[in-house]
Write a structure and sequence with these properties.
globular; mainly beta; Lipocalin; 2 helices
Length: 227
């Protein structure tokens, strides 16, 4: 259990309103992205099935978020995936990526429209080129929650996502979900991977847009390595 202050109500003062300037390693995720070479390995009755997929995702900055003294900067994201042979949605996912500058905590929340949510965490430096977050079934902090049917038929015991940022501005990921499929005694490693390239720049977070419209001066923080 991390050490928390006795004062759990007082929020930080003089918070920089510029989310993009304070996202640490998450800044590289901000914006719109496409990936055309995705590969999904999933369980079927006859054995593992490998599917190619096309991915579009959008990560937009949100305003700074405080839990009393705890301060997060983050991105709201939406991922939509199709397969080359079908127009129907293959996968849809929404959530938040959060960064706590004071501790280096990275959080990913995710929700999918098949009755499952999770919150995964990891640690990273502000200039990290690699992120790893994970969650485990049964945990009350960084855990996984599913419908009764998924618990019965495709129980998710763990989730791990590894993100790599590349010098050309693209990024890639490998997602591993360990499933206990009903009728099997060994866990199935459900894996997704893809490489994404930028399609659009991120928008400023809402508070920063409001301040700009008012003509109020904003002192923007500078990330390590930026002038």
């Amino acid at each position: 259990m991390p050490a928390f202050p006795d004062d759990i109500f007082t929020e930080p003062e003089d918070v920089d309103p510029d989310t993009l300037a304070n996202l640490g390693p998450l800044r590289r995720l901000a914006g719109g992205w496409e990936g055309h070479g995705g590969v999904d390995i999933n369980p079927k009755a006859d054995g593992p099935e490998t599917r190619a997929f096309l991915e579009r995702s959008l990560f937009q900055p949100i305003d700074p978020q405080a839990n009393g003294p705890q301060l997060f900067y983050g991105l709201r994201y939406h991922i939509h995936i199709n397969t080359p042979e079908e127009d129907i949605t293959f996968h849809d996912q929404t959530g938040y990526w959060l960064w706590e500058p004071a501790t280096g905590l990275v959080i990913q929340t995710l929700a999918i429209p098949r009755g499952q949510i999770a919150i995964a965490s990891g640690q990273a430096e502000p200039d990290a080129t690699r992120l790893v977050v994970s969650a485990e079934r049964g945990r009350t902090d960084y855990g996984i929650c599913s419908t009764p049917f998924l618990e019965h038929a495709f129980r998710t015991d763990s989730y791990r996502l590894e993100v790599e940022f590349h010098e050309d501005g693209s990024w890639s990921y490998v997602s591993d979900t360990m499933l206990m499929v009903r009728g099997h005694t060994e866990a199935f490693q459900h894996r997704d991977r893809n490489l994404l390239t930028r399609t659009s720049a991120p928008e400023p977070n809402p508070l920063l847009r409001v301040l700009a419209e008012r003509g109020e001066p904003v002192v923007r923080a500078t990330l390590p390595g930026e002038g």
